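## retry 2 of 3
previous attempt timed out at serialization; input unchanged, resubmitting
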Amino acid sequence: MFGSSDTMKVKICLVGEGAVGKTSLIRKYVLDEFDDRYISTLGAKITKKELRVEFPDNGNEIRIDMTIWDIMGEKGFRELLKEAYFHGAQGVLAVCDVTRKNTLPDLESWISAIETVTGKVPIQFLANKADLKDQLTFTESELREMSAKHKSPYIFTSAKTGENVDKAFFAIADAIAKRRVA
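## retry succeeded, writing output
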């Protein structure tokens, strides 16, 4: 059991097709910055951030030392490098782009690749670019169906406006912490 002064180290992977906003989400969360220029991630970029999760039932608080892996969106590399990238991941932020319909069903193969390495871990679906909801290419019910299939929550995010970005990272950290302590 973790006490109030304990630190839990966790590895989170952000997965999804290229240009869905994985790097922008991390940048917004860690640095509170947004840059709309697209720069393709090569391999994986690793960022760290610490946060705290409270357990209301016992009053304890745990520090989460989060290592965030930004995984490149190239399909060809997914199979080749999945063992190296996904090994030790305790949670996944599965990111799709609300303006590109194919990015939602494409998450199936990302989740499958992760689960072959990690087994079942907490997943949070992020429908990114929510600031462009007028360009939505899939329905919320399609997103809900995907998340229900994996027994995982979903949330609309915007790296540009910051909408639900902190909430998404906190939710995955909270799910991992509660799973480890249970």
